[in-house]
Known about the structure:
The structure holds 2 protein chains of 2 kinds.
Chain A: E1 3-6, E2 11-14, E3 19-23, H1 37-45, E4 53-59, E5 67-73, E6 79-84, H2 92-99
Antiparallel strand pairs in A: 1-2, 3-4, 4-5, 5-6
Chain B: E1 4-5, E2 10-11, E3 14-15, E4 21-24, E5 29-35, H1 40-47, E6 58-60, E7 65-70, E8 73-78, H2 83-93, E9 99-103, E10 108-114, H3 118-122, E11 137-143, E12 146-154, E13 157-163, H4 167-183
Antiparallel strand pairs in B: 1-2, 3-4, 4-10, 5-8, 5-9, 6-7, 7-8, 10-13, 11-12, 12-13
Helix pairs in contact in B: 1-2
The complex binds zinc ion.
The site of zinc ion has 7 residues of chain A, from loops.
Amino acid sequence: MLLIHCPYCDETLPELEFAYAGEAHIDRPEDPSAMTDEEWRDFLFIRNNKRGTHFERWRHINGCARFFNAVRDTVSDKFLTTYKAGTPRPSDAELEELGK
Amino acid sequence: MNVQNPIQFEPITAAHSGPVELTILPEATRFNLRIDPAGLAAASTAFGVDLPERIGGWAESATRSAICLGPDEWVLLAEETDRQAIEASFAGIYSDVPHSLTDISDREIAIEITGDRAAELLTVACPRNLDAIAPGSGVRTLFDSAQVVLYRDTSDKFRIEVWRSFFPHVWELLIIANKELASGL
Lengths: 100, 185
Ligand SMILES: [Zn+2]
């Protein structure tokens, strides 16, 4: 079983308590009605599907119930880090350090 | 105390199927409190217990207790007769400290789990490392597929609060696991 660090509980806990919630750092458009259909489609449905380092949202649904962000390698399934929602994504340098 | 087990259609209050004692606790008053942590001092005064700031923290007075489940979420426990007094007390601070106070008394049933092997019994269906839950604290977690709040009173005394509709499943599973402990499985 994967162990995931919840940045709110500040504990590393079993995956069973968590739910995956899609790609992270996708801004909701401020004025959807000004967008073309294609732009709106891209916002709703088009995702990176990255092979490797992926920024994603998780929710500690069966715990503190909070959404947070994680960086996970989609090849090895290893979590590089997790951080609170609303905080900036870690830089490439920081991630490289974490991956060592 | 009149909890009906929907499977057996008979009132149950306790089970002695193995080395661990399982008891259904009397009805209590339970509130779910959502509040900005900045308003915690006012809420603590209204409730009469210093609400814990750390997730998992559990604070008690003589008849009331409060557990912190999330960054802005608490469960308040009190005696059944205290309900209206608590509602009135929080209504008094509402205009200064906006919050949501929801009565969840009837939503949940509490099961007390006591004995040297209580922690071992819980490992049957709880994914948490129980050694990491210190006596005097508690967490929201899973028991098999049901979401529960798990309290640890002492090293060998726990309490599970489970939603009423999941109760028969959790209760039967505890009884079966207790039989397994008794049979040496
Ligand atoms: Zn959490």
